[in-house]
Amino acid sequence: MTGPAPSHAQATPSAVPGPPSGSPERMTGSLQFIGNATVLIRFGDLTLLTDPNFLHQGQYAYLGLGMATRRLREPALSIAELPPLDGIVLSHLHGDHWDRAARRGLDRDLPVVTTHKAARRLRQRHFSHAVGLATWSDSVLVHGRTQARITALPGRHAPLPVHRLLPPVMGSMVELGPADGPPQVRLYISGDTLLVDELADIPRRFPHIDHGLFHLGGTRLPTGWSHGLMVTMDGRQGADLLELVRPATVTPIHHDDYTVFTSPLTAFTAEVGRRGLGDRVTYVEPGGTVELRGRATPPPTPPPGGGAPAPAG
């Protein structure tokens, strides 16, 4: 098996003493952008990976229904260069989010938190710890003194009823903090969604969000056709989502790695600038990092949605 040595998060919180009451230890974290929708999340003792896509520049990702898209940029890291991982957050099972390199190179004992359909497919491929979540259900990963609660959020990859031809997709709320205390950071990952009505429930359930990772690009099918069906947010919808969920900061990703994208990052930049939201956006190049910061006093976490815990490796 190639790839990084497994770290393997525990499925339930460790019985370790916490910091003194009233003076919680502030954990530190970062996001490292690898390319497309692939991001390394480091926070305290935990390291997570999102939507692993490690195809090389010039290779094709297969999207189903006879469609494929060519990669235009090299990922910043290879699988062999990854640090030890504790788990994977997968928005959906498409060839530009979980590719053949990931299938061959990632440790099959890693927990993968994803949709029910993707989890079934991954277990068939011997990723035995893939966990499927329904919308608003959650899964908890713990490593050492750090916990991540991952809640599945609404998302839809295409307009009705065409969405049935594409894989189900989920957004994710990743709440990071000490294993024995409240979360210190809330990270919203949009997944490959359009701006649909169901997203309005997110700020009602999570009124404070520290950071967002927005999947943009204005993906159109058939591949890259300017008059094709749009299946991910373009610059305008991305700005709409920023106004809707109101994260303190947001980083746009998933916008220039493949020929399937039709809405460049400049479209989002212009739109948020026009709306006076430019100071809420943090841009990062592949290989670059963004600091993860939370509020000094975290808000209470909504009641768990009843999701199954991710099994330990």
Helix and strand topology:
Layout: E1 29-35, E2 38-43, E3 46-50, E4 60-64, E5 67-70, E6 87-89, H1 100-105, E7 112-115, H2 116-124, E8 130-133, E9 138-143, E10 146-153, E11 171-178, E12 185-189, H3 201-205, E13 211-215, E14 220-221, E15 229-230, H4 235-245, E16 249-253, H5 265-274, E17 289-292
What is the count of structural domains?
1
Q: Give the helix/strand class.
A: alpha/beta
* CATH topology label: Metallo-beta-lactamase, Chain A
Low-confidence segments, given as residue ranges, are 1-6, 10-21, 306-313
Order of helices and strands: EEEEEEHEHEEEEEHEEEHEHE
- Strand sequence of the main sheet, in spatial order? 8-7-6-3-2-1-17
In angstroms, what separates the terminal alpha carbons?
Answer: 15 Å
Shape: globular
Report the helical percentage: 10-25%
Compute the gyration radius: what is it? 18 Å
**CATH superfamily membership:** Ribonuclease Z/Hydroxyacylglutathione hydrolase-like
If classified by CATH, what would the architecture be? 4-Layer Sandwich
Number of helical regions: 5
Mean pLDDT: 87
Count of extended strands: 17
User: Biggest β-sheet, characterized?
Assistant: 7 strands, mixed
Q: Look at the structure and give the CATH class.
A: Alpha Beta
Pfam families: Lactamase_B_2
Protein name: Metallo-beta-lactamase domain-containing protein
Organism: Nakamurella endophytica
